[in-house]
Fold this sequence. Notes:
Elements lengths: L2 E3 L7 E3 L1 E4 L12 H14 L3 E3 L8 H10 L8 E6 L1 E5 L18 E5 L3 H15 L4 E7 L5 H17 L3 E8 L3 H9 L4 E5 L13 H8 L2 E5 L17 E2 L2 E2 L2 H16 L4 H10 L4 E7 L3 H12 L5 H8 L17
Parallel strand pairs: 3-4, 3-14, 4-5, 5-8, 8-9, 9-10, 10-11, 11-14
Antiparallel strand pairs: 1-2, 6-7, 12-13
Helix pairs in contact: 1-2, 1-9, 3-4, 5-6
Amino acid sequence: MRTRALPRRPQVRLTELGFGAAQGGNLYRATTDEEFAAAVDAAWAAGVRYYDTAPHYGLGLSERRLGAALGQRPRDEYVVSTKVGRLLVPSPENAHQRDSEGFDVPASHRRVWDFSRDGVLRSIEASLERSGLDRIDIVYLHDPDEHWEQAAHEAVPALLDLRDQGVVGAIGAGMNQSAMLARFIRETDVDVMMCAGRYTLLEQGAADELLPIAENRGVGVVIAGVYNSGLLSRDQPPADAVYNYQQAPPEVIERARRIAAVCETYGVTLPQAALAFVRRHPAVVSTVVGVRTEAQVTETVRRSDVAVPEELWGALTAAGLLAVAPGPGTADQPN
């Protein structure tokens, strides 16, 4: 599978398709150890070498499972990213309950926001212990929306020290918005941003500021949430489709269906076009897709391999369905 290097950290190379491991933390429903291991095996066989996780995903379950699945593979052949900002604090008194933040796991720990230097160091130490890995390649600040001051002035300097020491390979932030990601690039020394849901076939808000400044300053962008929580994941969006983690409004579903109809006339499906679109921007170094099973991995790789006709983008723009016409594609140009 093709790879791209982070412009500022060329030793960190990401495959164009990344494995999102939130489902390995039992996102929305339980996944077995065997199912998750089979998904990682399938991704590895397909050439995927970038894997993303976080303590938030299943209260550490995703990190434990991912570390176990990758542990016997050559460490220099893959890249792992995890996140800081939510410390996991034991709460055994709640272990009989289920987690309240969307993961089907016992509420044996609670999440505590902490972007302090000590919090960052403790979080990374805990992630290394849970995963069993010897190092973390990329560390993202996880959803610092309400914590700019502490994240920018305490967490980033702590991560810079770890990067300079070689403990981590690259640093950045991962969020469901693009404005603060652009601010991190303007005001701090980051290497890579993970933008979820704000640059997709359905909405291109990140193209206003984030992607241009990232390209200009040599900061890589990883696109997550490419299907906008599911709305773009099927050939024909159903009436109960999810958009941004909620029931999609009728007008948004209708727009997605119109996009799907144009895609069909060019011989591609909506999810195939969704994956192809985001990779065309030169600032985008990888696309992380959440997968749960071997079958989902196989389907995602198949979609990713489809060649999308250039004429599709112009047709979508002319129909008023694409606010930003994509620039020349970069997916076919490994570096």
